[in-house]
Amino acid sequence: MSGNPSDPGNSQRRLVAIYPGSFDPLTNGHLDLICRGARLTDHLIVAILRNTHKRPLFSVGERTEMIRKVTASLTNVEIDSFEGLLVNYAARRNANAILRGIRAISDYETELQMALLNRRMRPETETIFLMAAEEYSFISSRMIKEIATLGGDVSQFVPEAVTGYLRTKSSG
Ligand code: ADP
Questions:
Q1: For the chain, how far is it from start to end, CA to CA, in angstroms?
Q2: Buried residues in 65-75 as b, exposed as e (16+ CB within 10 A)
Q3: Is 25 close to ligand 1, i.e. is its CB under 6 Å away?
Q4: Second label for 55, Cα 20 to 30 Å away, from 24, 48, 131, 170?
Q5: What is the DSSP secondary-structure string of 66-100?
Q6: Ligand 1 atom closest to Cα of 141?
Q7: Burial class, 1, CB count within 10 angstroms (exposed 0-12 / middle 13-18 / buried 19+)
Q8: Taking the CA atoms of the chain, what radius of gyration do you get in angstroms?
Q9: Do 31 and 70 form a contact (C-beta atoms < 8 A)?
Q10: Which run of H or of E encompasses 57?
Q11: Is the CB of 145 under 6 A from ligand 1?
Q12: Contact 158, 26 (CB under 8 A)
């Protein structure tokens, strides 16, 4: 097929996707989505939301560092952070897709609403959903933090590097 740059369906177009989230902390579920997303896209930006209303356990710097360590072998994955509207960030980064994960029906409702709102605000950016892998579909950062704070072992739910970060936080 010949590459016509004005044709949105042309095969020469680079797929640049943003995977936004809090990643507080990164879990095996997030990592699975990053690996699968990286295989599907030309460039995947894992974008940490700097949310001034939430009090995260890990700073943006710590989260950037842990994601970078764990994804070091994925050459088309970049780690960044943003604040404000996701669609404005997508426009700044020239991204044509947003990647999100769906674990259960409860995710579906809010994800659908966000995807529809984002499409109204910026139709050029399409939201792509990946179903969570069944072995990770019950994992959430919130639960991991809770277990780790109560002294539980979370090593089967998060990448090895993240276990170290959690241990340091709970002992500190
Ligand atoms: P939030 O944006 O609610 O803070 P997270 O940072 O936890 O969410 O997650 C970002 C994205 O990753 C969301 O699309 C979420 O559905 C997805 N996600 C979270 N945990 C998992 C998991 N275990 N498996 C697959 N996707 C997940």
A1: 58
A2: ebbeebbeebe
A3: no
A4: 131
A5: HHHHHTTT-TTEEEEEE-S-HHHHHHHTT--EEEE
A6: 7
A7: exposed
A8: 17
A9: yes
A10: none
A11: no
A12: yes
Q: Which of 14, 53, 54, 120 is catalytic?
A: 54
68's tokens: 């970078």
- Asked: is 16-137 a CATH 3.40.50.920 domain? The reply is no
Element containing residue 49 per DSSP (H, E): strand 43-49
- This prediction has a pTM of 0.92
Query: Is any ligand 1 atom within 6 A of the Cβ of residue 58?
Result: no
Please identify which residue in the block is written with the tokens 């991204």.
Answer: 95
Q: What is the pLDDT of residues 5-63, one digit of tens each?
A: 555 555 668 999 999 999 999 999 999 999 999 999 999 999 999 987 889 999 999 99
**For the chain, which residues make up each domain, given as ranges?**
16-137
Q: Which two tokens stand for residue 147?
A: 């277990």
